[in-house]
Amino acid sequence: MTPLPSVVLRRGDSGPAVAAVCERLVVTGDLPGGAGHVDRFGDPIFDERVEKAVKSFQQRRGLLVDGVVGPSTFAALDGARWGLGDRVLRYLPEHFLEGDDVVVLQARLAELGFTAGKVDGLHGPDTDAAVRAFQAAVGLVPDGVVGPETMRAFAGLRRSVVGGSANALREREHIRRSGFSLSGRTIVLDPGHGGRDAGATGHRGLVEAQVALDLARRIEGRLSAHGVSVVFTRTAATDAGTDDERAAFANSCDADLVLSLHADHSSTGSAHGVATFFYGHGDGAGWSTTGEHFADLLLREIVARTGLTDCRTHARTWSLLRRTRMPAVRLDFGYLNNEGDATALSDARTLDAIAEAVVVALQRMYFGEADTTRTGVLRLDDLRRHLEAMRHQQVGSEAVPPRTGT
Predict the structure, then answer these.
(1) Max CA-CA distance within the chain?
(2) What is the pLDDT of residue 1?
(3) N or C: which end of the chain has fewer CB within 10 A?
(4) Contact by Cβ (8 Å): 260, 328
(5) What is the C-alpha separation between 196 and 143, in angstroms, rounded?
(6) Measuring CA to CA, which residue among 378, 401, 402 is closest to residue 390?
(7) Strand residues in 146-246 grouped as ranges (E)
(8) Is 158 helix (H, G, I), strand (E, B) or coil?
(9) Angle, helix 383-399 to helix 348-367, in steps of 10 degrees
């Protein structure tokens, strides 16, 4: 992959890095005709037209739509210029190749029945293992190199998984096989920001990093009571680093799920409400079905318990959501510079209600298709009794012999 620019690019900038961005925006179709204005050296200027093109690309790719080209946006732009077969793909442990061609490769492997992990556009060890398994199955040397021979083998095969997304089917089956109980699972809680980065600030002296950590501790206490092993990405005295580093830490824990906790803010202070985010690629090739399901359950449980405004569930390709091997969900639990949200979040009862919603939503996710519970009804006090009833119901249904025709 082309090295990332060392600076963030925004409106008013110019130079070779801006020229590289414009070239990629032309390829993606967001900047037809190329850049308009140039500086005195003949390099394109990051003007209003380029900014609109960047925002268009960011919107389609599930990135933060700010019109600014930082590392995440440039990486997505650079990867968008590759189609499967345009270059040789291989696993590089020190630097994963990434791009749209890797997305297509992962989706193709999944369709053929070879598990490549999350369809995230990152050529990591899971993708390499799936490529080698495919090569061995079709009689090729299992070297993990996706070159002309492997591409010809792909062209001659049809998908073996039918009836929906292969990854979605695998995720649902994994949830079903893992059982109802939360006990024994590992959940990574990621309180946003930390260290010198306090995040958003707002009314009533609320600071995002502090509120997120407070909420994480309340969630930890309730999850631990149900036998869940909870791991924090940071404490009050430590900094978890970048989203890439937080994702790498979660992967090292081999967690079942990651929940990242953030607050929001707006320029006017009028925006308010709670939203959830999960990994989802704009074209649908990469999509975490489990992440979407948990994000939806979590949002509905929080709204039912707190009365905070429902700002919906959204698919995004943010680094933490994309780079974790397990499902990851981000919760934005309110706008700190909105008077109503700040008043609610400064009340310990609201944070306790959100913490309860997290545990109930997580348990409902593992109930799977057997879940018939109304949102906002289950409480922690009766969660174990409900779980036991679900187990008895499952055992009873398995004991009843199937009906036969007469």
Answers:
(1) 89
(2) 44
(3) C
(4) yes
(5) 45
(6) 378
(7) 186-191, 229-232
(8) coil
(9) 10
Q: Which CATH superfamily is domain 180-392 in?
A: Zn-dependent exopeptidases (3.40.630.40)
Give the separation between CA 22 and CA 376, rounded to whole angstroms.
49
Cα 322-95-146 angle, rounded to 5 deg: 90
d(CA 335, CA 202): 8
Handedness of CA 144, 150, 156, 158 (dihedral sign): positive
Neighbours of 361 (CB within 10 A): 24
Q: Measure the CA–CA gap between 120 and 363, rounded to whole angstroms.
A: 26
CATH superfamily of 100-162: PGBD-like superfamily/PGBD (1.10.101.10)
- The residue to which tokens 């919603």 are assigned: 357
Per-domain boundaries in the chain = 16-79, 100-162, 180-392
Among 104, 46, 111, CA closest to 74: 46
Residue with tokens 């990867």: 79
Q: Which CATH number fits domain 16-79: 3.40.50.1010, 3.40.190.10, 1.10.101.10, 1.10.10.10?
A: 1.10.101.10
Please, which residues have CB within 8 angstroms of residue 186's CB and are 6 or more apart in sequence?
A: 228, 229, 230, 231, 253, 254, 255, 256
CA distance 24 to 5: 14
For 247-292, what is the HEC assignment?
HHHHHHCCCCEEEEEEEECCCCCCCCCEEEEEEECCCCCCECHHHH
Pick from 157-171, 192-206, 236-250, 331-345: least confident = 157-171
> What pLDDT digit, counting tens, does each position of 327-377 carry?
999 999 999 999 999 999 999 999 999 999 999 999 999 887 667 677 777
